């Protein structure tokens, strides 16, 4: 019998590649996607992608999705309680694991594992300790497509967002930027590829800058630069 898994879906390239690996593994059955969203703006936390596009991704993937809403200035404890309540409900329905697209941040992995242990679940990391430059190559080689939708102003400028993720894009990144943006340098919106039943249609809107505000989500990696704010490329559903 396959192990039932909930996948923490950010909507970006790492999530798409990790989900691709899980769906191709006969040991697991992905029963639902789970995404943290900003309650005020109705967008995916950090990525800034509209909920309408998040739900369009789930429909194209053929998987149900649950959204956990967090407030702008809520505490980590508040976030952890909401997540625990959601995952406990899944655990009662036979789910035994929760999967993530994290690659190498050990402190983040430990934080996730500790939170899951409290509700009797284990964590899966399909991309763990993979070479991030190779992961980008794998993502593109499999036929996935993604757009860079968010970039940290500590690393990148306005021209870094609204661009398709390509090998040329990665090659032009500053030397201290991870090819997968694993330290939070940039985020992406995956919209086509082998796990999608059809491409997610969207249109590119304006590019805006938002000063950073503390949010209840994940611990900041201690080796990352101090982030002043983020550049966002607004994406909207297209007919």
Give the percentage of residues in beta strands.
Answer: 25-35%
**Given the structure, what is the number of helices?**
6
Give the CA-based shape: globular
Question: CATH homologous superfamily name of the largest domain?
Answer: HUPs
What does this protein structure show overall?
- With 239 residues, this protein is of the alpha/beta class.
- Helices cover 28% and strands 28% of the residues.
- The chain folds into two domains: 3-124, Rossmann fold, CATH 3.40.50.620; 132-237, no CATH class.
- It has six helices and ten strands.
- The strands form two sheets. Strands 1, 2, 3, 4, 5 and 6 form a six-stranded mixed sheet that branches.
- Strand 1 (3-8), helix 1 and strand 2 (28-38) form a beta-alpha-beta unit.
- The model is unreliable at 215-223 (pLDDT under 50).
Please describe the topology of this protein:
Layout: E1 3-8, H1 13-23, E2 28-38, E3 43-44, H2 51-61, E4 65-70, H3 76-92, E5 95-99, H4 106-117, E6 122-124, H5 132-141, E7 145-152, H6 167-171, E8 186-192, E9 202-211, E10 229-237
Parallel strand pairs: 1-2, 1-5, 2-4, 5-6
Antiparallel strand pairs: 2-3, 7-8, 7-10, 9-10
Throw out a few tags for this protein:
239 residues, alpha/beta, Rossmann fold, six-stranded mixed sheet, 6 helices, 10 strands, 28% strand
Task: Summarize, please.
Helix content is 28%, strand content 28%. With 239 residues, the protein is of the alpha/beta class.
């Amino acid at each position: 019998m396959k192990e039932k898994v909930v996948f923490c879906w950010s909507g970006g390239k790492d999530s798409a590649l990790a989900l691709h690996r899980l769906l191709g593994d006969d040991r697991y059955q992905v029963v639902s996607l789970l995404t943290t969203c900003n309650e005020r703006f109705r967008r995916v936390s950090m990525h800034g992608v509209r909920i309408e596009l998040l739900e369009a991704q789930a429909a194209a993937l053929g998987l149900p999705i649950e959204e956990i809403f967090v407030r702008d200035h809520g505490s980590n404890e508040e976030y952890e309680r909401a997540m625990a309540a959601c995952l406990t409900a899944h655990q009662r329905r036979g789910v035994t694991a929760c999967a993530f697209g994290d690659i190498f941040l050990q402190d983040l992995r430990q934080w996730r594992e500790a939170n899951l242990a409290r509700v009797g679940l284990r964590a899966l990391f399909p991309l763990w300790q993979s070479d991030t430059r190779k992961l980008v190559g794998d993502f593109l080689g499999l036929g996935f497509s993604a757009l860079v939708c968010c970039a940290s102003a500590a690393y990148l400028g306005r021209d870094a967002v609204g661009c398709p993720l390509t090998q040329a894009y990665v090659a032009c990144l500053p030397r201290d930027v991870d090819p997968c943006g694993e330290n939070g340098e940039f985020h992406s919106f995956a919209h086509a590829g082998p796990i999608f039943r059809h491409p997610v249609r969207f249109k590119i809107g304006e590019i805006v800058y938002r000063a950073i505000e503390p949010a209840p989500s994940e611990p900041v990696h201690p080796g990352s630069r101090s982030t002043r704010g983020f550049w966002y490329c607004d994406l909207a559903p297209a007919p």
